[in-house]
Write a structure and sequence with these properties.
190 residues; elongated; 9 strands; three-stranded antiparallel β-sheet; six-stranded antiparallel β-sheet
Length: 190
């Protein structure tokens, strides 16, 4: 076996788990309930923000059911779809923040594109987000407060942002109107 510095096993594990789960037509909530795991934990694993132990991964896979060997040999076909109707965008957000993703799976993809909607007052949280990569977006409507490190700015329709995602960042809808944004990040983080 040769070492490939561009190979990220963590990213591959989360994307592979999501693809296997979707192939078996299971929602995150259904699988989490089936194996006695918090939905948020499964979400963190699939988004590569948490690495499961081998025992935890086996327990999750038993709920699908698929064995460890079959799981690690599974290679889903990358999506070949070029065009997506509005109703084909996949909702991956929750509550007052909607993240509608272009493509049902990001396995084998380097870019994630989202149509985001923040209801008035919606916020990504008091704890700033950080992850590998870069992200940018364009505000379509409403007003979005974007904080990156020590910098903060309120953006309106037509304004944009672009930054390295390892810098702590936060998004918050300000004003009485919902805010809509089209964003992209690489590598995919959700």
């Amino acid at each position: 076996m040769t070492f490939d510095p561009d190979f990220d096993q963590t990213l591959k594990l989360g994307a592979r788990l999501k693809a296997v789960r979707q192939l078996h037509q299971l929602s995150q909530r259904a699988l989490a309930k089936r194996v006695g795991l918090a939905h948020s934990t499964l979400s963190l694993i699939e988004s590569n923000q948490m690495n499961p132990s081998v025992g935890a991964l086996k327990r999750i896979l038993d709920g699908i059911p698929i064995g460890l060997a079959a799981f690690f040999s599974f290679e889903p076909e990358p999506s070949r779809t070029v065009f997506y109707a509005a109703e084909d965008l996949v909702e991956i957000g929750k509550g007052p923040i909607s993240f509608r993703q272009v493509g049902d799976t990001l396995f084998g993809r380097a870019l994630q594109i989202l149509k985001e909607r923040y209801e008035p007052g919606a916020d990504t949280g008091r704890v700033p987000l950080t992850h590998k990569g870069e992200e940018g977006g364009i505000v379509l409507s409403g007003r979005l407060e974007v904080t990156v490190g020590d910098e903060r700015k309120i953006l309106g329709a037509g304004d944009a942002y672009y930054f390295e995602s390892h810098r702590p960042h936060r998004f918050r809808c300000v004003g009485p109107q919902a805010c809509e944004v089209v964003s992209a990040c690489t590598p995919p983080t959700f």
